User: What shape does this take?
Amino acid sequence: MDPAGLPQVGPQSAGAHPGPACYGQGGERPTLTDVFLLLGRLGSSGLLGGALPLDREAAEAAMERHLASPLGVSVERAATGALELAVAGLRRAVDGLTVAEGRDPRAFVLIAAGGAGPMVACELARELGIREVVVPRYPGNFSAFGLLVTDLRRDWVETRLIAASPESMADLNRGFSDLEREAREWLEASGVPEDRREIARRVAARYVGQDYELETPVADGELGEERLREMVGRFHRAHEGRYGYSVPDWPVEFVDIAVTAIGRTEPVRFRSAARGARGAGTEPVGSRRVFLGEGPGWRQCSVYDRARLRPEEVVEGPGIIEQYDATTYLPEGYEAHVDGAGNLRLKRDRE
Assistant: This one.
């Protein structure tokens, strides 16, 4: 509860120590992990294949003391409300990356990563009007995997408030030359082979009088009047795309110049998911009571072992798909399709 007496989700975190109340490590305040346990999305058998058991009674006591009792509602309603707030916060974050940038989220697929992402992904997708959710094979290791396979990258940014005019090109050329020299030295020190090096340039530009900028790419080579016209033209088009208008007759100025050095890594070859006899994976390995919402209430739902699912198999919701590093909640009205790479593709069965 915040000082105004309203429920709040984050930005504080219980971290790994003491962690959520249900970890039994001294945590006293309810977290989203406690919410997932109280609503049945997580089972008391625990996380990490049972290596980390969860204490439902501790989660319930923490929720009752810190949220349900102050609000005068049941533990179940308090947990549901916390989940709704979390999804609303996620939606605001996605809106900031899409709608605020002139992009329609309904044109995208939502990738659910992290150990908890797949537990709320379908509800977030429904809020955003997104039709499909993809859960990678190992969502809990998604970021770590990315660090192993991503290209090396480093950015250099220097503030140079100069007018977008032919008289400024000499200053701009000197600035890019200095930054590119640093970028080449870094690539060399990082052991990146010549044929895998890439250096890209960009400027942060704005209309004179604005207090915010847009980044636009800059071509390689010496900058002259023709290149200047290209840069300013890209800025006008970017401004039109972002804000719905441009002012071609208004003066433009450059605020920052930037150089990005990229060291390309070896391409990753992904192995197809193991195939086997179809049908075995869609047999539940257990069941538990899951709260499906105010209307449906509690229902006994099937629990599936993701390791047993094979390409082309389909699991119908409501249900829970468990694996070592994550748990996927499949709401009522959704289906989970296993593709050839072993990803789960979650779709509403009425679409």
